[in-house]
Amino acid sequence: MSARLHDGPADPEFDGARPSAVLAVLADGPDGAEVLLTRRAMHLSTHRGEVSFPGGRLDPGETYEQAALREAHEEVGLRPSLVHVVGRLQPIATLVSKSWIVPVVATVAEPLPLDGHPSEVDRVLWVPLRDLSTPGTFREEWWPTVQGDRPIFFFELDDETVWGATARMLHQLLRVAHGVEGPEPPAI
Protein backbone atom coordinates (compact mmCIF):
# COMPACT_ATOMS: atom_id res chain seq x y z
CA MET A 1 0.00 0.00 0.00
CA SER A 2 2.80 2.46 0.82
CA ALA A 3 3.93 2.40 -2.82
CA ARG A 4 0.53 3.80 -3.85
CA LEU A 5 0.42 6.71 -1.39
CA HIS A 6 0.59 10.34 -2.52
CA ASP A 7 4.14 11.62 -2.94
CA GLY A 8 3.46 15.06 -4.41
CA PRO A 9 3.72 18.42 -2.65
CA ALA A 10 1.31 19.20 0.15
CA ASP A 11 1.33 22.97 -0.34
CA PRO A 12 -2.17 24.49 -0.39
CA GLU A 13 -3.48 25.11 -3.88
CA PHE A 14 -5.67 28.15 -3.13
CA ASP A 15 -5.30 31.50 -1.39
CA GLY A 16 -6.28 31.67 2.25
CA ALA A 17 -6.05 27.92 2.77
CA ARG A 18 -5.73 26.79 6.38
CA PRO A 19 -3.29 23.84 6.57
CA SER A 20 -4.58 20.89 8.59
CA ALA A 21 -3.67 17.25 9.07
CA VAL A 22 -5.53 14.12 10.08
CA LEU A 23 -4.19 10.73 11.12
CA ALA A 24 -5.60 7.74 9.23
CA VAL A 25 -4.41 4.97 11.54
CA LEU A 26 -4.70 1.35 10.45
CA ALA A 27 -4.35 -1.71 12.67
CA ASP A 28 -4.58 -5.46 12.17
CA GLY A 29 -7.88 -6.50 13.76
CA PRO A 30 -9.54 -9.90 14.06
CA ASP A 31 -11.31 -9.41 10.70
CA GLY A 32 -8.47 -7.68 8.83
CA ALA A 33 -7.35 -4.07 8.70
CA GLU A 34 -9.29 -1.56 10.81
CA VAL A 35 -9.22 2.23 10.69
CA LEU A 36 -9.48 4.61 13.66
CA LEU A 37 -12.34 7.12 13.55
CA THR A 38 -13.89 9.41 16.14
CA ARG A 39 -17.25 11.07 16.64
CA ARG A 40 -16.79 14.73 17.46
CA ALA A 41 -18.31 16.00 20.72
CA MET A 42 -21.82 17.47 20.48
CA HIS A 43 -20.86 20.71 22.25
CA LEU A 44 -18.28 21.73 19.61
CA SER A 45 -19.09 24.78 17.51
CA THR A 46 -18.27 23.12 14.17
CA HIS A 47 -18.86 19.62 12.83
CA ARG A 48 -20.51 18.54 16.10
CA GLY A 49 -21.44 14.86 16.20
CA GLU A 50 -19.73 14.12 12.91
CA VAL A 51 -17.47 11.12 12.39
CA SER A 52 -13.91 12.14 11.57
CA PHE A 53 -10.28 11.20 11.75
CA PRO A 54 -8.28 12.63 14.65
CA GLY A 55 -6.73 15.85 13.42
CA GLY A 56 -6.72 19.60 13.24
CA ARG A 57 -4.85 22.73 12.24
CA LEU A 58 -1.06 22.87 12.08
CA ASP A 59 0.72 24.81 14.80
CA PRO A 60 3.48 27.19 13.63
CA GLY A 61 6.56 25.25 12.50
CA GLU A 62 4.82 21.84 12.54
CA THR A 63 4.92 19.32 9.72
CA TYR A 64 1.73 17.59 8.69
CA GLU A 65 2.97 14.39 10.34
CA GLN A 66 3.74 16.17 13.62
CA ALA A 67 0.33 17.85 13.66
CA ALA A 68 -1.51 14.59 12.92
CA LEU A 69 0.35 12.73 15.69
CA ARG A 70 -0.15 15.59 18.18
CA GLU A 71 -3.86 15.85 17.45
CA ALA A 72 -4.37 12.06 17.75
CA HIS A 73 -2.61 12.13 21.11
CA GLU A 74 -4.72 15.08 22.32
CA GLU A 75 -8.02 13.71 21.04
CA VAL A 76 -7.82 9.98 21.84
CA GLY A 77 -4.61 9.47 23.84
CA LEU A 78 -2.76 7.66 21.03
CA ARG A 79 0.92 7.80 22.00
CA PRO A 80 3.08 8.86 19.03
CA SER A 81 5.73 6.31 20.04
CA LEU A 82 3.28 3.50 19.14
CA VAL A 83 2.59 4.86 15.66
CA HIS A 84 4.49 4.07 12.46
CA VAL A 85 3.89 6.74 9.80
CA VAL A 86 3.63 5.16 6.34
CA GLY A 87 2.95 8.17 4.11
CA ARG A 88 0.25 10.57 2.96
CA LEU A 89 -2.92 10.46 0.94
CA GLN A 90 -3.67 13.15 -1.61
CA PRO A 91 -4.58 16.41 0.18
CA ILE A 92 -8.27 17.29 0.41
CA ALA A 93 -9.50 20.87 -0.09
CA THR A 94 -12.70 22.01 1.56
CA LEU A 95 -13.37 25.31 -0.13
CA VAL A 96 -16.30 26.26 2.12
CA SER A 97 -14.16 26.15 5.30
CA LYS A 98 -10.93 26.96 3.39
CA SER A 99 -9.21 23.90 4.85
CA TRP A 100 -6.29 22.16 3.17
CA ILE A 101 -6.22 18.74 4.82
CA VAL A 102 -3.30 16.33 4.46
CA PRO A 103 -4.28 12.80 5.53
CA VAL A 104 -1.27 11.10 7.13
CA VAL A 105 -1.46 7.31 6.93
CA ALA A 106 0.02 5.32 9.80
CA THR A 107 -0.17 1.93 11.45
CA VAL A 108 -0.27 0.53 14.95
CA ALA A 109 0.16 -3.14 15.82
CA GLU A 110 -3.44 -3.71 16.92
CA PRO A 111 -6.66 -1.76 17.54
CA LEU A 112 -5.72 -0.13 20.83
CA PRO A 113 -8.26 0.69 23.53
CA LEU A 114 -8.42 4.48 23.33
CA ASP A 115 -10.55 7.04 25.15
CA GLY A 116 -11.75 10.22 23.54
CA HIS A 117 -10.93 13.45 25.32
CA PRO A 118 -14.40 14.68 26.40
CA SER A 119 -13.72 18.24 25.25
CA GLU A 120 -13.34 16.99 21.66
CA VAL A 121 -14.53 13.39 21.17
CA ASP A 122 -17.73 11.55 22.14
CA ARG A 123 -16.76 8.17 20.72
CA VAL A 124 -13.74 6.24 19.43
CA LEU A 125 -14.36 3.65 16.71
CA TRP A 126 -12.17 1.02 15.10
CA VAL A 127 -13.93 0.24 11.82
CA PRO A 128 -12.90 -2.78 9.71
CA LEU A 129 -12.10 -1.78 6.12
CA ARG A 130 -14.16 -4.82 5.15
CA ASP A 131 -17.26 -3.12 6.63
CA LEU A 132 -16.58 0.02 4.58
CA SER A 133 -16.37 -2.09 1.42
CA THR A 134 -19.58 -4.07 2.06
CA PRO A 135 -22.20 -3.56 -0.67
CA GLY A 136 -24.77 -0.97 0.39
CA THR A 137 -22.44 0.83 2.79
CA PHE A 138 -21.14 3.44 0.34
CA ARG A 139 -23.28 5.89 -1.58
CA GLU A 140 -22.68 9.03 -3.59
CA GLU A 141 -24.90 12.08 -4.07
CA TRP A 142 -24.37 15.09 -6.33
CA TRP A 143 -24.83 18.40 -4.52
CA PRO A 144 -24.91 21.86 -6.11
CA THR A 145 -22.08 24.19 -5.03
CA VAL A 146 -20.80 27.55 -6.25
CA GLN A 147 -18.20 25.58 -8.26
CA GLY A 148 -20.90 23.42 -9.86
CA ASP A 149 -22.33 20.05 -8.89
CA ARG A 150 -19.94 17.98 -6.77
CA PRO A 151 -20.02 14.37 -5.58
CA ILE A 152 -20.60 13.92 -1.84
CA PHE A 153 -19.68 10.53 -0.42
CA PHE A 154 -21.40 8.69 2.43
CA PHE A 155 -20.52 5.52 4.32
CA GLU A 156 -23.56 4.18 6.20
CA LEU A 157 -22.26 2.12 9.11
CA ASP A 158 -24.54 0.24 11.51
CA ASP A 159 -24.92 3.21 13.87
CA GLU A 160 -22.99 6.10 12.30
CA THR A 161 -22.87 7.94 8.99
CA VAL A 162 -19.52 9.12 7.68
CA TRP A 163 -19.76 11.87 5.06
CA GLY A 164 -18.06 14.98 3.71
CA ALA A 165 -14.29 15.36 3.80
CA THR A 166 -13.85 12.32 6.06
CA ALA A 167 -15.79 10.13 3.63
CA ARG A 168 -13.67 11.48 0.76
CA MET A 169 -10.50 10.53 2.66
CA LEU A 170 -11.91 7.07 3.50
CA HIS A 171 -12.83 6.61 -0.16
CA GLN A 172 -9.26 7.52 -1.13
CA LEU A 173 -7.80 5.22 1.54
CA LEU A 174 -9.88 2.31 0.24
CA ARG A 175 -8.83 3.06 -3.35
CA VAL A 176 -5.17 2.98 -2.29
CA ALA A 177 -5.64 -0.17 -0.20
CA HIS A 178 -7.36 -1.95 -3.11
CA GLY A 179 -5.01 -0.60 -5.81
CA VAL A 180 -7.69 1.37 -7.69
CA GLU A 181 -6.14 3.98 -10.00
CA GLY A 182 -7.63 7.23 -11.28
CA PRO A 183 -8.32 10.82 -10.25
CA GLU A 184 -9.97 11.81 -7.01
CA PRO A 185 -13.17 13.87 -7.01
CA PRO A 186 -12.90 17.69 -7.01
CA ALA A 187 -12.86 19.80 -3.87
CA ILE A 188 -16.12 20.56 -2.09
Summarize the structure in words.
The protein has 188 residues and is of the alpha+beta class. The protein has a domain at 2-128: Nucleoside Triphosphate Pyrophosphohydrolase. It contains 3 helices and 11 strands, in the order E-E-E-E-H-E-E-E-E-H-E-E-E-H. The strands form 2 sheets. Strands 1, 2, 3, 4, 5, 6, 7 and 8 form an 8-stranded mixed sheet that branches. A 3-stranded antiparallel sheet has the order 9-10-11. The longest helix has 14 residues, at 164-177. The protein is globular. 31% of the residues are buried.
Q: What key phrases describe this protein's structure?
A:
188 residues, alpha+beta, Nucleoside Triphosphate Pyrophosphohydrolase, eight-stranded mixed beta sheet, three-stranded antiparallel beta sheet, 3 helices, 16% helix, globular
Structural class: alpha+beta
Name of the CATH homologous superfamily of the domain at 2-128:
Nucleoside Triphosphate Pyrophosphohydrolase
Radius of gyration: 15 Å
Mean pLDDT: 87
By CATH reckoning, the class of the domain at 2-128 would read: Alpha Beta
* Beta strand count: 11
Distance between the termini: 26 Å
- CATH domain topology of the domain at 2-128: Nucleoside Triphosphate Pyrophosphohydrolase
Major β-sheet annotation: 8 strands, mixed
The helix tally amounts to 3
What portion of residues belong to β-strands?
35-45%
Low-confidence stretches: none
Tertiary shape: globular
Percent helix, as a range, is 10-25%
CATH architecture of the domain at 2-128: Alpha-Beta Complex
Q: Secondary-structure element sequence? A: EEEEHEEEEHEEEH
